[in-house]
Please model this.
Amino acid sequence: MSFLKEPPYRHGSTERSAIVLVNLGTPDAPTPSAVRRYLKQFLSDQRVVEIPRLLWWCILHLIILPFRSGQSAKKYASIWTREGSPLKVHTQKQALLLRGALGERGHDGLSVAMAMRYGSPSLPEVLAKLQADGCERVAILPAYPQYSATTTGSIYDAVFAHYARVRNVPELRFIKNYHDQDGYLDALRDSVLAHWEANGRPHKLVMSFHGVPKRTLLLGDPYHCQCLKTARLLAAKLRLTPEQYVVTFQSRFGKAEWLQPYTAPTLQKLAREGVASVDLICPGFTSDCLETLEEIAMEAKHDFEAAGGEQFHYIACLNETPAWIAALAEIAEQHIIGWPTMRTPGQRDAERKQAETSRAAALALGAEN
Model:
């Protein structure tokens, strides 16, 4: 194995720290070719699909990619904006606002970057740029509140794979989950209450999380339990009784059993039972995307109304709400304790002078840069 070329080293440079906000990813465009490239990368990840490689290669390349790419492209086109993919746009804005929020809290010399696990900007690309910028400490902040091997675990794989080819590896910290963090839950609560204040309360609140195969739970993945805990804690903050809300799982793929109850059948059942109005929130998604804007706000709404339901409202993801940005800043701060990111003007001046002295000494000893 060959190592990646290291960026030029400059003696006397001040060290920097960075936070990388990582989301799942998105196609570069709502076209069959772009979607095909994205799906190929996403569905080739063994964390995502745990099927024997040869069998899955045949299914993926002979069935899924040829037929699903065009169908998915139409769905992406239905939610695409002038700025681009909603997921990418929201994640970019979150990273920018997070940097501002941390700056207001006194963090100096701290970069905040956005990366995608699949698609662009890729994790290796972003990590390499941070290294070139002199970042010696990097914290990885997944956009997934609940841990799953299929999501957060896959991010870890990508980070480790990149640094396995790097000589000068930075100090690394990983934020595993924040499904029960008060700031995150308070932001969800405020979002629901604001929606209710504007639209009235429904007969039932549905909390829909992204599904994963049931076997992952049986094999030890904590995702299911963390989803249920998030739902229970959010319900408590909203003062809901167990009869006033229901937890479901969406985005089932393939014939295997996934975590239940499934979202669409549950909505149809509620409508047939006479539940006239439903609000649906997706607590596991921090940015609106295909799974929320098309699968829920369009398809799930149609399923509920076609089964006799009268009123369906989708409550948007946290996106760039101030409460969520503040929660992100709190989560980040909890995981960079001990890093020299908060310095007074006097400390910064002293650090610069020390760096200049160090550089002069190195050059005097024959250093080239």
Q: What stands out?
A: The mean pLDDT is 93. The radius of gyration is 23 Å. The beta strands are 16-25, 110-118, 135-142, 171-174, 204-210, 245-250, 277-281, 311-315.
